[in-house]
Amino acid sequence: MKPLNLGAAISRGAMAIIGAMVKSLAAAGVHPNVLTTVGVLINIFCGVLFGMGEFFWAGIVLIGANLFDMLDGNVARLTGNVTRFGGFLDSTLDRLSDMVVFLGIITFYASNTPQRSLLNVVLAGVAMMASVMVSYTTARSEAFGVKANVGFLQRPERVVLLVIGALSTWDWNSDVWWFNRMPQVLWVLAVGSVWTLVHRMYFIWKEFRRMEGARGI
């Protein structure tokens, strides 16, 4: 008898739920672009919650927002509504979603509260800029024929880290060591996003050199 793989079981269960939601939305005739737009609106609400210091609830909302991010593409493929504009809209609003969440975190740590922290403001700002640049370098390199999805801290990993930091932060006065981990998460996001950006740019540079060498340039 094979041992139960809890992680695989959870993954299969989650995919089954998402699959059922995709079929229901497709049957109801919901356009994928509507799901994309709703997703970014939820992310804006998440950013507002971060700005208000409601980190735990922001984490819950962030999970819902990224559920919509998984639904729109699947609904588009199932209904045959895959369009260039849909891909463009999804990619563009993903960047807006990333920035508005970090903006909320920056707003909170810059506000006049006991948790005010210039260091956290800088870390969140660096993480925001680097994460957007990671996506930008990928888009630009693909326009020149280089696919550069390399680096250990891509968008799904960033979202998971933000959720972890947010869900751990629901009692600002607690001395329990696993509470209020957002500052540590911001360090990982800032350093990891910059490292991923450098790694991706180096990879793109090598690929361009290889392509130019193959053409004898």
Q: What would you say this structure looks like, in words?
A:
With 217 residues, this protein is mainly α. It has a single domain (15-214), classed as CDP-alcohol phosphotransferase transmembrane (TM) domain (Four Helix Bundle (Hemerythrin (Met), subunit A), Up-down Bundle). Helices cover 76% and strands 0% of the residues. It contains 7 helices and no strands. The chain has helices at 6-27, 32-51, 55-79, 84-110, 118-143, 155-167, 182-214. α2 (32-51) runs antiparallel to α3 (55-79) and α4 (84-110) runs antiparallel to α5 (118-143). The longest helix has 33 residues, at 182-214. The radius of gyration is 19 Å and the shape is globular. The mean pLDDT is 86.
Topology:
Layout: H1 6-27, H2 32-51, H3 55-79, H4 84-110, H5 118-143, H6 155-167, H7 182-214
Helix pairs in contact: 1-3, 2-3, 2-4, 3-6, 4-5, 5-7, 6-7
Main structural class:
mainly alpha
| Helix fraction by DSSP (H/I, runs of at least 4) | over 70%
What's the count of strands?
0
Total count of helical runs of at least 4 residues: 7
Largest sheet, described in full? Answer: none
CATH class assignment: Mainly Alpha
So, CATH architecture?
A: Up-down Bundle
Radius of gyration: 19 Å
Apparent shape: globular
* Mean of all residue-level pLDDT scores: 86
* Series of H and E elements: HHHHHHH
Question: Which residue ranges are poorly predicted, with pLDDT under 50 across at least 5 consecutive positions?
Answer: none
Strand residues, percent: under 5%
| Domain module tally | 1
CATH fold annotation = Four Helix Bundle (Hemerythrin (Met), subunit A)
CATH superfamily: CDP-alcohol phosphotransferase transmembrane (TM) domain
- State the end-to-end distance: 59 Å
